[in-house]
Amino acid sequence: MPIKIIEGLPVRTKLQQEQVYTIEASRAITQDIRPLKILILNLMPLKEKTELQLLRLLGNSPLQIDVEFLHMSTHKSKNTPTSHLQKFYKTHQEVKDEYFDGMIVTGAPVEKFNFEQVGYIDELKEITDWAQTHVFSRFYICWGAQFALNHYYNIEKLMLSEKLFGVFGYQNIKPEHPYVRGFDDIYQVPQSRHTRIDYEALNGIPDLDILTAHPDFGPDIITSKNQRDLFIFGHLEYDRKTLKDEYDRDAKSGLNTAVPLNYYPDDKPSENPKFQWRSHGHLLFNNWLNETYQNTLYDLEQLHNLK
């Protein structure tokens, strides 16, 4: 089934080339089905790249999905034209009276700041609290996951001595869990971050299940016991060349960023990067959509009655 998007969204052409099925809103309203409503809070600076990455994964599902994009009204984007935001994005004030089956919160390039130093942190807290009664299932990625764990459980993030940058094998430690159903025992995950969460504090939270982990780099996928909150620190949504783009950008800026590990053949940046995580990216998103579809309420306005 296709994903429903706003008329004219530029990345639709690329999705069609990849045979990812989309349907524009004017056609979708003629169909008598109950689609999943998914809200994407896009905190990344290059919003169109992130749109493509997430829609590519959401579109690989037998479910029809209605997607809306959200941006922060208290932050002015320097890398995405205002016209794009005005045409294809909404603010929290515009959706605060709506209900959604799922919400994805992306990462953001602000991890070196304390949470309270982030200019839009109050608005993000407001959206996160609102989602407790207006969204059935929440999916937080990278810095978004670090923020949510801090906001929900007061788990702090800690600076790493050097950037965790590359593709690493993580262990599937709860293969029976529906979010990692079908995962290999060891699966590859792109990582690109300067921080980690406080693992000791995480282990002290009985409401959380750690689903996958690395012996040196700690957890990657975590979920709440009721499975309504999913957290991932890696980037299974990344394209083949996303880490390359980050490395090339840093090198051009004169930063002493190490070559991403286990990414290029023989760790040589002149080679074409290996795409080692694509299947597990599709699997995780499909598992999340399936669990959301199986468990969400038909009448989303009844979310207020859930605890």
Automatic annotation (TrEMBL):
GO MF entry, a single one: homoserine O-succinyltransferase activity
Coiled coil: none
Record keywords: Acyltransferase, Amino-acid biosynthesis, Cytoplasm, Methionine biosynthesis, Transferase
Catalyzed reactions per annotation: L-homoserine + acetyl-CoA = O-acetyl-L-homoserine + CoA
Keyword Cell cycle included in the entry's annotation: no
PANTHER family in alphabetical order: HOMOSERINE O-SUCCINYLTRANSFERASE
UniProt record similarity statement: Belongs to the MetA family.
Subcellular location: Cytoplasm
InterPro entries xrefs: Class_I_gatase-like, HST_MetA, MetA_family
Full protein name: Homoserine O-acetyltransferase
Site (described: Important for acyl-CoA specificity): E111
Binding site for substrate: K163, S192, R249
Site keyed Important for substrate specificity: positions: S192
